[in-house]
């Protein structure tokens, strides 16, 4: 209702909201429950009754059961009367989307049926049945047609035929999530739709965390004849954002009039059923009303996207989980430092929102910090209240990483804890020695690879146990209520390679960087040095990535991540994109890399690298089944929950595939 009220107060005559907005897009298997549809109709009844929805066409999204089949629908109404229920035609069913699991597409083009309204709606509207199907609205002055999210991305988008049939305004209610470097694709598709066919296109998208790994990134927009005339924000803490534009329909008509190929196609188009609406979007005396002019779309850089998207997602998660803040094991390396910077960015966004008068954010802040008079003004001061960092040293930790973590904590303002886990490690290993009579050694002291790995894993897993203990009780020791959410900081490349201990500090409540590559995190760190003046990050950037789980040599780190992994982070990123985005198995990846790396590798070296990657990937794939829920930001994410569905028990010899590679190497 607040969005409709704002739209009306700004003179709008048609209001469009995002996909499935009444119940929320992320209901998942709750769509199977009749309660979800019942409660959606109850909300619809409240909207229909409200004086706020009078004299404005309202277009809302909800699931509807028609003849015992569930559809993803737009319900369009005006002055307590439902004009049309328009079911989705093309369902999103790739990547993170599973709409075919819950909904059926409307497979009857240009066909309308009678929908029998439930009694709670009949009592408000006085209607027994309303049109249900693929139709358009004909008002007194124009014609409007609806698309729903995926339909814009489909090769045979409805706006093509609708535009040829005289529809002048296209609407798109979207549930589109953030992926780094993706925003321009949506903008290009919308502008392209109206450039070829003429017309006005308005797109509304969800914004925020809807209860899972995705962040819906807004970018509401209005376009006319191939040019953007209004742009909404991609990231913000505002629950409601309204975009309004005044445009001249005659500009659409004159634009279309000179496109002869369009007009020839329009003369033989199969017409859409039209629902007549006794209402006009324009006024008879609007000659002097100024119209909106085209604008240049401003895109965020990838570094800005990392700074803003995960920060907004963290804020939504924090306020909705009703916890008192975050705890992060801060190692002094790039990944945990980048996570700390995202929390610091969140504190910036919160202070900015409060400064700009966002009462909802202020109320959430006061509840989180348990102070009804508190006003967050300084991000560092707010950070100290909601963010605890913890450096967990062992005998294998260097003084350098300890100093880096401490200095970064000082600069962002977090409440910082230094502790040592050696006593716990010795106690655990002591139990093993007492039971078995054997004491494992690191390889530098003559131990086997098995002993070396087990001793590293004990340290890593103890850190997880300590992190959760401090998350639950740190505020108790400070005389403050509540507990903290534990943040993880394994990047997307490490997850893909499996370069992490199962149930170590990568196991947390949530992970804001789990979908971001090492290369992008480095760029983000550089951005934070410049944008937030965090000089502590300079030494973190220049230090080689290390797990610091093996003994130091002369006080210096001897263990380096890339040497341990047998591949560089840059190579990992390439493997990840080829495996997931290019859908390459071992043989196809080898063939593609032969070309890509022909200047730097022999065919035999390429084969060796590809085999090593797939061997390590398959050996460690089981770790993805317990991966901490991570912000989805990359299309090569190995997230096992929904996005990247694979077996986790592999034949790790890949005998047939590797034999094909070997034959090709020998032939070359």
From TrEMBL:
<dbReference type="GO" id="GO:0004359">
    <property type="term" value="F:glutaminase activity"/>
</dbReference>
<protein>
    <recommendedName>
        <fullName>Glutamine-dependent NAD(+) synthetase</fullName>
        <ecNumber>6.3.5.1</ecNumber>
    </recommendedName>
</protein>
<keyword id="KW-0547">Nucleotide-binding</keyword>
<dbReference type="InterPro" id="IPR022310">
    <property type="entry name" value="NAD/GMP_synthase"/>
</dbReference>
<feature type="domain" description="CN hydrolase">
    <location>
        <begin position="1"/>
        <end position="249"/>
    </location>
</feature>
<comment type="subunit">
    <text>Homohexamer.</text>
</comment>
<dbReference type="GO" id="GO:0005524">
    <property type="term" value="F:ATP binding"/>
</dbReference>
<comment type="pathway">
    <text>Cofactor biosynthesis; NAD(+) biosynthesis; NAD(+) from deamido-NAD(+) (L-Gln route): step 1/1.</text>
</comment>
<dbReference type="InterPro" id="IPR036526">
    <property type="entry name" value="C-N_Hydrolase_sf"/>
</dbReference>
<dbReference type="GO" id="GO:0034354">
    <property type="term" value="P:'de novo' NAD+ biosynthetic process from L-tryptophan"/>
</dbReference>
<dbReference type="InterPro" id="IPR014729">
    <property type="entry name" value="Rossmann-like_a/b/a_fold"/>
</dbReference>
<comment type="similarity">
    <text>In the C-terminal section; belongs to the NAD synthetase family.</text>
</comment>
<keyword id="KW-0067">ATP-binding</keyword>
<dbReference type="InterPro" id="IPR003694">
    <property type="entry name" value="NAD_synthase"/>
</dbReference>
<dbReference type="Pfam" id="PF02540">
    <property type="entry name" value="NAD_synthase"/>
</dbReference>
<dbReference type="InterPro" id="IPR014445">
    <property type="entry name" value="Gln-dep_NAD_synthase"/>
</dbReference>
<keyword id="KW-0436">Ligase</keyword>
<keyword id="KW-0520">NAD</keyword>
<dbReference type="InterPro" id="IPR003010">
    <property type="entry name" value="C-N_Hydrolase"/>
</dbReference>
<dbReference type="GO" id="GO:0005829">
    <property type="term" value="C:cytosol"/>
</dbReference>
<dbReference type="Pfam" id="PF00795">
    <property type="entry name" value="CN_hydrolase"/>
</dbReference>
<dbReference type="GO" id="GO:0003952">
    <property type="term" value="F:NAD+ synthase (glutamine-hydrolyzing) activity"/>
</dbReference>
